[in-house]
Structure formats: C-alpha cells, structure tokens
C-alpha cells in the first residue's frame, strides 16, 4: 500500500524514545522528513542519529517543553523554517500520573493539563496556518484507553486524556473544511522503559515474551503490545491511506478496553 508520505514533514513531540521515537522512525522509513521534539537534548540527539542511520531521512531536533506555549510555537516555527512546510503533527508528549482524587493537588492537576491537553492545543494552533498553506494535514493526539473508562485512582491522567478526546472530536469538526484531519489513538499496555524496568525488577528470570504473556493474561490478545504496533497505527493515520478518517479514536490495547 502506498502511504503517500514521501516529501511530507512531520513533527513528533515526546519523540526521544518509546512510541514517539518509533513513530518518527516509521514516518522516516516512509519518506517523510521528521522533527523530533522533547525536553532532553541528549536523548534527542541519540534518537536522531539512529533514525538517520536506519533511514537516511532528514531529521531536525528541537528541544522544547510542551507545557510552555512559546516553546510549542517555536517548535513549529523552526520546523517550517528548516523544511519549508508542515503536514503532520503527532501530539505524543506525556507522562503517567495516577493517584486517587483526594491525593491529587492543584499543582499536579495544572501541570498534567498543561502537558497533555494544552501542549496539544498550543502545538496544533501553531501548526494550523502552515497546514492550511499546504492544502491539508493530519493531527494525531496520543491519549490513553483508560480515558474512556477511568478506573479508581487514575487521576489526573485519565481526565487530561479524556479532554484530549473531546479536543480531537471538536477540532475535526472545525478543521475538516481545510482538509486537516484530526484523530486520536488510545494507548493501552504497550512496551515502554517503565514496563521494562518493572520486568527486570520483578521477573528477571523470565524472557520478555514470557513476562509479556504473564502480565497480559487478562488482555484478549494475551500479551503486552509492542511499541512498533502503536507506531504502525499512528503512521496509518498520518498517511493518505486514512484520507477519509477524521474525528475518531483507535484503541491500541489488545482488546482490553471496555469501550469502543
């Protein structure tokens, strides 16, 4: 299938590792130029070098804090100054933050919303005129499957992520007239640095496959998802293969979610 990503320019936030890194890698493999954004410059340099070596693609790194509106704007400005256009934005920056309602203070509420909700708002707002100039584009908001069915002690993450889903739907209604598509992916249990640390601490005698199956017993597909599997779906949503898909969310959770 031809994805139509050759010559496109994509910004990926939270791109130094995990889902963001693998998404940038796959977009680069499909012919896109990629802009990697995260707070840690050293990690970005390592990620960029690996992508260049594996794909030969053009890669720009822009260290930035997605909780700062000015820095979100600067990422977009530098991307367009360097590559001349912007077609794809993957709002992936985020952290896991979960506790009971009584234990979440005002500062944590604000910092979580600043990163996961307003980071996406500010980046998307900055990207809009450039996508309009390019004749369209694709924005993908990375959220969590638990945003649809929040369990106890999952705050503030599930609230911030649920707001991201509402943002996705509302933006898709407003921006469709510009041929700008806006979708979300809802992440379930996907391999990450945090999960790998837990594996090495809790079950060092097990292989990754054994540990994945053990932890994933309650998941219909019976395992933890691979990072690349999440990147596959994001790349599809960024591409021409999803040209009539907007305003929707896709669960990447092995079937574990309780909502469509």
TrEMBL record:
This is SDR family oxidoreductase. Keywords: Oxidoreductase. PANTHER family: 3-OXOACYL-(ACYL-CARRIER-PROTEIN) REDUCTASE, NADPH-DEPENDENT REDUCTASE BACG. Belongs to the short-chain dehydrogenases/reductases (SDR) family. GO terms for molecular function: oxidoreductase activity. The lineage of its organism: Bacteria, Bacillati, Bacillota, Bacilli, Bacillales. One of its GO terms (biological process) is bile acid metabolic process.
């Amino acid at each position: 299938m031809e994805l139509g990503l050759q010559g496109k320019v994509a910004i990926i936030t939270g791109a130094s590792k995990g889902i963001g890194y693998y998404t940038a890698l796959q977009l680069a493999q499909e012919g896109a130029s990629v802009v990697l954004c995260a707070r840690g410059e050293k990690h970005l340099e390592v990620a960029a070098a690996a992508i260049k070596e594996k794909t030969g693609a053009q890669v720009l790194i822009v260290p930035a804090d997605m909780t700062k509106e000015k820095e979100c704007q600067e990422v977009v400005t530098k991307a367009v100054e360097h590559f001349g256009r912007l077609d794809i934005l993957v709002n992936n920056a985020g952290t896991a933050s979960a506790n009971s309602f009584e234990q979440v203070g005002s500062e944590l509420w604000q910092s979580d919303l600043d990163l996961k909700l307003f980071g996406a708002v500010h980046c998307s707002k900055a990207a809009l005129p450039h996508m309009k100039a390019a004749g369209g584009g694709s924005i993908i908001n990375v959220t969590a499957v638990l945003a649809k069915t929040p369990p106890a002690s999952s705050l503030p993450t599930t609230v911030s992520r649920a707001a991201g889903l509402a943002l996705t739907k509302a933006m898709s209604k407003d921006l469709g007239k510009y041929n700008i598509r806006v979708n979300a992916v809802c992440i379930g249990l996907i391999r990450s640095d945090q999960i790998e640390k837990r594996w090495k601490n809790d079950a060092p005698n097990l292989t990754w496959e054994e540990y994945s199956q053990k932890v994933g017993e309650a998941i219909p597909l019976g395992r933890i998802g691979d990072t690349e599997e999440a990147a596959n779906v994001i790349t599809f949503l960024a591409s021409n293969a999803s040209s009539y898909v907007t305003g929707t969310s896709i669960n990447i959770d092995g079937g574990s979610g309780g909502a469509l």
